[in-house]
Amino acid sequence: MPQELLGELVREGKTFTPSRLALVWRDQETSYITLDGQIDRAAAGFRRLKVRPGDRIAFYLHNLPHFVVAFYALQRLGAVPVPLNIYWKGRDLRYLLEESRVSGVITIAPYYDRFKELLPVLPEINWVVAITAGGSQPPGALSWEEVLAEPLSEPVYSDADAVDPALLAFTAGRTGPSRPVLLSHFNLLANCQQMQDLSQAQFRGGGNDEDDEDTAGILPRASAFEVALLPLPLFNLFSLNTGLNMTFFLGGTVVLQERFDPAQSLELIERHGCTLVFGSPAIFSQLVNAPGFATAKLDSLRYAFSYGGPLPTQIKDGWRKKTGTPLFNCYGVTEAAPLLCSEAASEFSAETSNEDNVGRPLPVVQLSLQGKSGNTLPPEQAGELLAKGPNLLLGYFNPAQPDQPHLVKTEGGFPTGDMAVAGEDGDLHIIDRREDVLLLPKGELLAPRDIERILETHPGVWAAAALPYTTPEGRNRMVAFVVLNQAGRKLTEPLLLHYCDRRLPASHCPERIFVYQEPDFPRLPNGAVWRRALRAQIPEYL
User: Fold this and answer.
1) CA-CA distance, 206 to 429, in Å (whole number)?
2) Rounded Cα gap, residues 462 and 410, in angstroms
3) What's the pTM value of the predicted model, to 2 decimals?
């Protein structure tokens, strides 16, 4: 396992391949030596703002080069970046800021007002940097140019240790409030190392090339290297660590897409010869179904990785048929930095796996299944997934005592909150969140996806979401919401219930099916339905 620090990744790349392309954004191409200088200069600027080791700094912006530069600059100061979901605002944003107790914020000028209204009640925030695209600077905010105002006199180095906090990342909040997870340099880089040891993915660089045996450090000398497209927001931990950090860990090139657009993604793959893509089921679905997918020149691609939910078999098949390369589904949790499993860790199979297949554990990760009474279950029985590994969190940040995180007992394994079962081939299949699975009287498990799959086969249904609901009488029942398309505009609840009744066992049919009155369900950044927000709306439909 690595003992490096995140702030040294780009510096290592500069040492071995100074002129190699490190970062591409729009028409800007930045080499390792130039990026390293920008990071040092920003680190000096943040030091002038009195950023100290352990200080937490919020990131609230799209995929911009400024995010990359500031992220590694703060690592060189021993500070702790806190990436925030830019779709959270108002009281939700205030919650994230209060739970992380940040002392500074990096955002873009159009979002500054979201912070301005919160600053009076968050006195710990000493400064806000608002990045502009040549427009006017918001009054009261610092500009990015002020951070870089003074020329650099000497490189900036951190005194941090590998086990010190390097990142505070919030959980998705699928079934409860988002929790602030503390991850160390070691946790994050261990997960990058684990990805390099997959049975079905041999990455270029990072010491994996046969002709790199005599190369010192964690990066190879100039040779073949990976070019990774990152269409997911960097506030998504999969994009930030598995995408950004691992690509620099390999000495490769990051192609940063500011906002996902399928046509632009295909063009970027062609133009820059991308070899890797790190996305989500929603992103790969849009790519495979994009008008230009069939004619795009994608022969540079080697592997693609999806994270964030079930990956439909038709998307995997469509990707492989066009590109000739695999699309691997991955699974993890924020607390694992974030990956625990990948189909790339499984044995090769010519057959396309099911959509809920997440492969096998990454190297050095140990997984087990736990029953309702806490007993360990055999793999063929469904239970809650427990995890052990060097990539698991330091603890949960404690805003009441910032220097003393809430430690997590992981002797028996960290409880992921997800129900899973192993198939005959040894691959794991994720059923659903523990809180969203119902135990039926005969001992069967009813998962929301069982109902959603059926409803989404109806030609009038655009999307479906099922979830358990406790009635005022205390009964646990499964209900479902549907978003209708144009063909289904006349569908009613009785018709939909009849449709399910003909295709599901009686015990698996939802008690109620509501026609959702908005164009789409509330969703998390990875595209998954935000069931907690949807559950809160059930009383409006009863």
Assistant:
1) 30
2) 41
3) 0.88
